[in-house]
TrEMBL record:
Fe cation binds at residues 27, 75, 210-211. One of its GO terms (molecular function) is metal ion binding. GO terms for biological process: iron ion transport. Belongs to the bacterial solute-binding protein 1 family. Keywords: Ion transport, Iron, Iron transport, Metal-binding, Signal, Transport. One of its GO terms (cellular component) is outer membrane-bounded periplasmic space. This is Iron ABC transporter substrate-binding protein.
């Protein structure tokens, strides 16, 4: 065999490794901002395939070893935890796992929490005073709350359901879901919960904190909105803090570069800076402050739990169906 330009072999090999493919269930603008910022920082291009968490996770499972995905970024811990449970994720390096707020690092160590999302109540102060709001979402099934609040069967609502299965059991969770369906108004999407509360159609609604901050920014400031955000600030399921996460797929042919992306996501001057500036989700690394005027993680009280424990998303989905919510 004649060796052609032996010295150039390595650069040929590298050409296939210059692009990473990221399957993302996160808000698409945010995922794309991460991709372009990583490319400017490292020269490695990141191609984003965006959809819902459940779609992207479903695709990865279906594609198996042939999957194009090097990386997965999910909005919710549950879908990520379900991939992890199936053994499809590569471990995250210990020094990288040491960077984010340790309360969100999954016990498995196979994915990195990158942003926190608080479950909250949006309320309309012209309809209800903040101190009259329930201190537990478990109380919402009581007759006194009938017809007064909105909710949406979003990914985070599914996470809440998964969390309740783990803490109060399946039967009580199903009972609760049936009560929510009977008492609440299903507005289908978190954004609709926000808008309908803002418009005074409901006294309050269950949602994720950041939807309100997105609207406040669009309208030119928090004082331009009538509605407000209520953080339960306790150990109730209504105060859950859910981690969005990133991981390298075991099937990726590009383990090293993908791990580099994961590491960059934890860097204060890397992915965390993009979290702070491009989305009102809460940065995970100490010293990185959101541009959206969000409360810091340390200023809030929320339940302690292992984000990896929300791998029971299928069971949560089943209950939502049984209750007639989805
Ligand atoms: Fe969202």
């Amino acid at each position: 065999m004649v060796s052609l330009a032996a010295g150039c072999g390595s650069s040929d090999d590298a050409s296939s490794g210059d692009t990473l493919t990221l399957y993302s269930g996160q808000h698409e603008d945010f995922a794309k901002a991460l991709a372009s910022s990583f490319e400017s920082a490292t020269g490695t291009k990141v191609e984003v395939r965006a959809g819902k968490d459940s779609e992207m996770v479903g695709q990865i499972v279906e594609e198996g070893d042939r999957s194009k995905a090097d990386l997965i970024l999910t909005e919710e811990p549950g879908p990520m935890a379900s991939l992890d449970k199936q053994g499809l994720l590569s471990p995250v390096a210990k020094d990288v796992l040491a960077l984010p707020d340790q309360r969100f690092v999954p016990s498995t160590g196979n994915w990195l929490p990158v942003a926190a999302r608080a479950r909250v109540m949006f309320f309309n102060p012209t309809k209800i005073a903040e101190d009259k709001l329930p201190s537990s979402i478990l109380d919402l099934t009581k007759p006194e709350w009938k017809g007064r609040f909105a909710y949406a069967p979003s990914g985070a609502f599914k996470s809440t359901t998964a969390y309740l299965i783990n803490t109060i059991g399946k039967d009580k969770t199903l009972e609760w879901l049936k009560g929510i369906k009977a008492n609440g108004v299903n507005e289908q999407k978190n954004g609709k919960v926000r808008d309908s509360v803002e418009a005074g159609q409901h006294e309050f609604g269950l949602s994720n904190h950041y939807y309100w901050y997105i609207l406040a920014k669009e309208k030119g400031g928090e004082d331009k909105l009538t509605s407000r955000v209520h953080y339960l600030n306790n150990d109730d399921a209504g105060a859950l803090m859910l981690a969005s996460g990133v991981a390298t797929l075991k099937s990726s042919k590009n383990q090293e570069k993908a791990a580099e992306f994961v590491k960059w996501m934890a860097a204060a001057d890397g992915g965390q800076k993009v979290v702070a500036s491009e989305t009102p989700q809460i940065p995970m690394v100490a010293g990185v402050t959101s541009a959206y005027g969000l409360p810091a993680l340390d200023s809030l009280t929320f339940p302690k739990f292992d984000q990896a424990s929300l791998d029971n998303v299928d069971a949560a989905n089943d209950l939502l169906k049984q209750a007639g919510i989805v």
